[in-house]
User: What shape does this take?
Amino acid sequence: MLLPLLLRPPRCLPQASVVLTRCVLTLRCGAPRGLRSQAKNFLWRWRPQRLHSRGRSRKTQSQEEEWRNRNKTALTYIAAAGVGMIGLAYAAVPLYRLYCQATGLGGTAVAGHDMEQVATMTPVKERVIKVTFNADTHASMQWNFRPQQTEIFVVPGETALAFYRAKNPTDKPIIGISTYNVVPFDAGQYFNKIQCFCFEEQRLNPHEEVDMPVFFYIDPEFDNDPRMARVDTITLSYTFFEAKEGQMLPLPGYSYS
Assistant: This one.
């Protein structure tokens, strides 16, 4: 009478728990040999499955941890690449400007020269070139800025001196900074400036007026370049901007918008 009550499935346990409970009670309560054999076989089959499920759970956790570590590494590389790109973006303009000054790219006159070469170069007397001068100011710049001469005639291998004049007509001091280029652009690599006022801040007090010199020469190699065969006029152009914190100057050889 007591065995059926013990083997009756409790209502609060799931089906798998009911089966296990019956098996355990069968083994403990002296049930017939055949019933006990079936209970042992069931418990033996159930135990490996449970151990297998535990091993699979541990393997899943290990894989999840490995993926988390990989994701952290990937995010670290992405963040480092982002910081590097931001740094390159800030450095791009000055680096490009230096490159243009060194190579004449974008109509930029070449900066940096060998004074010994300047002293020993031979002028090409039969090749006369007209150099014209242009002056502009940005819309926000209140200076009056103009060239002192509209044009001069030079030959490759000969130094020349020109002047620009700037005036501050306002009642407050203004700091200006200029950019420049040479047209045609391909001639920029032969246009060498020994002294100029470009990319340097110039402060003018109220109603102050100054002359700004440009000392330059055209490389004698200009005459040997087939691309320059039909070039007989070169224009040197300056644009002044009001120097403000965080302001980005335009790249040489490109218009400002």
Q: What stands out?
A: The radius of gyration is 43 Å. Confidence is low (pLDDT under 50) at residues 1-7, 89-109, 251-257. The helical segments are 2-7, 15-28, 33-103, 115-120. The first strand starts at residue 129 and ends at 137.
